[in-house]
Write a structure and sequence with these properties.
By secondary structure, the protein is an alpha+beta fold. The protein has helices spanning 16-30, 48-67, 69-72, 75-89, 118-129, 133-136, 164-169, 190-194, 197-212, 220-231, 235-243, 347-365, 370-381, 405-413, and strands spanning 2-6, 9-14, 95-101, 107-113, 139-146, 152-157, 176-182, 251-252, 256-258, 265-272, 275-281, 287-293, 297-305, 323-333, 336-343, 437-438. Helices cover 35% and strands 23% of the residues. It is globular and about 75 Å long.
């Protein structure tokens, strides 16, 4: 059997024959020209080298399927992973009570089935809170780890290919929790959410919590004004004032390491406002701050090295020694692209944030409405598991097919930039062209943006 890891945690174990069955089902539904090539069957027993080669091929196959918007969002693919997760963790289908946290620490207990997928659980929480249907899509469930000081470290946004109850209980660690938070980046959407009492309360609780944990920066005078609005219970005014503060609407990540501006720098990364913000501690102990705009990232990739172990791991779950890196190629100036790498256990969550920022920008650019996009999702997918329509959400490992058209167009658009061949990156661990995630928001960048 092959272990499939999600963010360094074992998601499920599957056999070659099961994956072949999935492949054949996808070919039947979507056509042979859409589905990537599958590692061939072998007549004789595989040698250890061939086993490893097949593992690599299967990994590439699963990533290629996942990052194709049609295949990766398909009910066939997602239900395969959900079923495999439930079977691997040996959790029978039964009714259970799941505890979901709100930002202010309040616990919402929902009665669900162990086999309920992410959308079902989100709907159950929304229903318990009386959050109206057309606001459900503005929120998401996140897997977090509670830290000693009561703050949260984000593991990932729960995806449609997993069962939240199984994901959290299989970690066998009470520090892991599921939390409900808003899942959009543009604070102008706050207006939609604040129209309704429950939406306003959720947003208010999250804002208060982010200020208390130091995620949103507040000076003494602002703190005094916020305190007075809190005492008057002026929630809307409180949020309006918070919107003007630094890092409002950002997700703050745990301290990690970056190679920018030089190797081995300690950094605190925050994601928000269509950028990654770096607070870097230089070897000279000097603190510097700067931001990388998502529109100027040409592409990015996540790479991981998983310890070779097929048996039960000796270390406790969640303390896996997996090394994850997020690297992005950034347009530093008119004719200079440079790779920036972040080494962090939260690399996949960072990647999911980048992807969702790009998705939101593209919806805006095409004149679409985020509310409509979400409403369609609510009507289509937030029904119990018999739903055939899958919710599109960012790929798990954001390293899609670099050969997609916009990537080719870039070289003609940016004639002043010497674009290296995709597979000749300056990174030490060279990865092939298909391991990159091309960024469509980068396409429209012009000289005035620089």
């Amino acid at each position: 059997a092959y272990n499939i890891h999600v963010n360094g945690v074992l998601h499920c174990r599957v056999r070659y024959s099961q994956l072949l069955g999935l492949h054949e089902q996808l070919r039947k539904e979507y056509g042979a020209n859409v589905v990537p090539a599958f590692p061939p069957k072998k007549i004789f027993t595989l040698t250890p080298a061939e086993v490893e080669q097949r593992r690599e091929q299967l990994e590439k196959y699963m990533q290629a399927v996942r990052q194709d918007p049609t295949l990766g969002g398909s009910e066939t693919f997602n239900s395969f992973l959900r079923k495999a997760q439930q079977e691997t963790q040996q959790i029978p289908t039964e009714e259970v009570v799941l505890e979901v946290l709100l930002s202010n620490g309040q616990k919402v207990k929902v009665t669900i089935l162990t086999s309920d997928q992410t959308e079902d659980v989100l709907e159950a929480v929304a229903s318990k809170l009386d959050l109206p249907d057309d606001l459900v899509g503005y929120f998401s469930l996140f897997l977090v780890r509670e830290t000693k000081d009561g703050a949260f470290s984000f593991v990932r946004k729960l995806q449609e290919f997993e069962l939240p109850y199984v994901s959290v209980t299989s970690l066998h660690n009470p520090e892991f929790r599921i939390i409900l938070r808003k899942s959009y980046w543009d604070s102008s959407y706050d207006d939609d959410v604040m129209e309704h009492r429950v939406g306003l309360n959720l947003l208010y609780a999250q804002t208060v919590s982010d200020i208390e944990h130091g995620w949103i920066l507040v000076n003494k005078e602002q703190h005094r004004q916020l305190k007075s609005l809190q005492e008057k219970v002026s929630k809307k005014e409180f949020i309006r004032l918070a919107q003007t503060l630094k890092y409002y609407g950002y997700l703050k990540f745990d301290p990690c390491v970056t190679d920018f501006p030089e190797k081995g720098c300690h950094v605190v990364v925050s994601a928000g406002n269509n950028e990654l913000n770096f607070q870097v501690r230089l070897p000279s102990e000097q603190i510097k701050e700067g931001s990388f705009k998502v529109t100027r990232m040409r592409c990015w990739r996540v790479t991981s090295s998983v310890p070779m172990s097929n048996g039960p791991s000796g270390s406790s779950p969640g303390k896996s020694e997996v090394k994850l890196e997020l690297a992005f190629e950034y347009l530093m100036s008119k004719d200079r692209l440079q790779w920036v790498t972040i080494t962090s256990p939260q690399a996949i969550m960072l990647s999911i944030c980048l992807q969702s920022m790009v998705d939101e920008l593209m919806v805006k650019k095409s004149g679409g409405s985020i509310r409509k996009m979400f409403r369609r999702r609510v009507n289509g997918a937030l029904r119990r598991s018999d739903s055939q329509q899958a919710v599109k959400s960012p790929p798990l490992l954001d390293s899609p097919d670099a050969s997609r058209e916009p990537m080719a167009k870039l070289s003609s658009k940016l004639t002043s930039v010497s674009l290296r061949g995709m597979s000749h990156s300056s990174s030490a661990n060279d990865v092939g062209a298909n391991d990159f995630h091309g960024n469509y928001a980068f396409e429209g960048i012009g000289d005035e943006d620089l």
